[in-house]
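Allow me, if you will, to draw on your knowledge of protein folds for a short while. I am sending you one protein, given as its amino acid sequence and as whole-number tokens for its backbone shapes. Kindly check, if you would, that the fold set down in the tokens agrees with what the sequence suggests. The record follows directly beneath this note:
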Amino acid sequence: MSESVTLPALGESVTEGTVTRWLKQVGDQVEVDEPLLEVSTDKVDTEIPSPVAGVVEEILVQEDETVEVGTALVRIGDGSGSGDAPAQAAPEPEEAEPAPVQSSPEPAPRQVQQDEPEEDAEAGASYAEAGASYAEPAPEQEMAQPQQAAQPQQAAQPQQAAQPQQAEQPPLAEEATNSVETEVGRDSGPAAAPTTPPTPAQPAPVQSTASPSQPAEQQAAAAPQQQPAAPAHQGGGAHAAAPYVTPIVRKLAHDRGVDLASISGSGVGGRIRKEDVLAAAEAKPQAAAPAAAAPREKAQPSALRGTTVKMSRLRKVVAERAVVSMQSTAQLTTVVEADVTAVANLRDRVKGEFQSKTGQKLSFLPFFALAAVEALQQYPIINATVDGDSIVYPDTENLSIAVDTERGLLTPVVRNAGALSIAELAGQIADLAARTRENKLKPDELAGGTFTLTNTGSRGALFDTPLVFLPQVAILGTGTVQRVPRIVKTADGGESIAIRSSVYLALSYDHRIVDGADAARFLTAVRQRLEEGDFTDALGI
């Protein structure tokens, strides 16, 4: 009994999607809610989970194909319709007849490399890592194979050499992937072919340590020599059947210096999750502490140097929208500088209490967001949208937050931001940013924004000229908060130089409906709200 999985509706106005990556292949076992494939739309890239459990019998839509909502993507059943199912049950370790077919164990490692579908152009930096990890088992196999081939020379009867091989088989039989055939073939080849030893001289030293008149002792001595080879083969199988690792988790592991091969995933099917990487990173500094005084290592160049990769669908959509926005609007930018010393002092006083009560770290961003939405209520032209030759003034402030991801820039929406406290803004911004980077957003969470806030200061920029995307008419960029000397008034009316916390606020806007005076009034309102620093009642804790 098979069931088809169709492309679901991925949000309002989304009618089609492009299959960018299959996470399961024909013959693979899949559980309920386990990710099957990745789909890209003009709004978001997302994973499609399996609604049923079973075996993937047929993939109906290939990668890079675009289909309508409701189109059947894959058939999942009990495995009776899968072309790979008979092949998985075929190898039997007890049979000695297939041994002559595999005249040499050398093709097995090459087959493992060819069968790997793990990475695509969007994760190009991981190709070198994947190639290195899949090639590692080869030297171990070459060392283990002469030991296995030498054992039949010691035995007086063929069945004595077959018994250690059967003891190794149960761990390999538990591998539920297509690489099982490769691993079984690799183990059975040398052990079942006693007529092809590597060299005539090698069995002599081995035979001198065993007595031909004592078969039981000979079998017991042969087993320990063959058992060490099993972990090497199983290690190769683990690489071949390694769970899919998202680009975000891979990047996080790279940034934290965590080896993904050393982590046991806690997700579905052993999938490595962000929490697994963070837990491994927290345990790492204790071992790395003695090396803290080592000289700084030279930064390694990116693996993307000298390569050509295909532009992702998301990158194409962002590029097209950016060009259309620039060609359809008259954009310019106005910049002011704000003294946020009062905000910095308040933040320092309450950040401990804030985190204990909300579970969120208190940054400057929710203060900027609150000051911006309050100013939008005073100057709604900055919050307006363009509809043909009409100006639409929304009755809410839906704040789009620019989030930097490995796939590109995305802007999830905090709805009705004007009614939220700083704690609520901080919580929603953190939640949306995390789910955006983990590719867990719903498509509707990227639609409906009326004004955008981008924190370019999080990467150290003083300010920039952010780009307005239609149908919005403005976007506010906040720079990094820095300590600078400034002239301040003293209590006696004089002036002095003091160290203050300062930030640049850059507003880009559509000059078709927003004048420079409108932009200046809006920025002045934001600056005054921040410089007053009276946010105690708005903290929400």
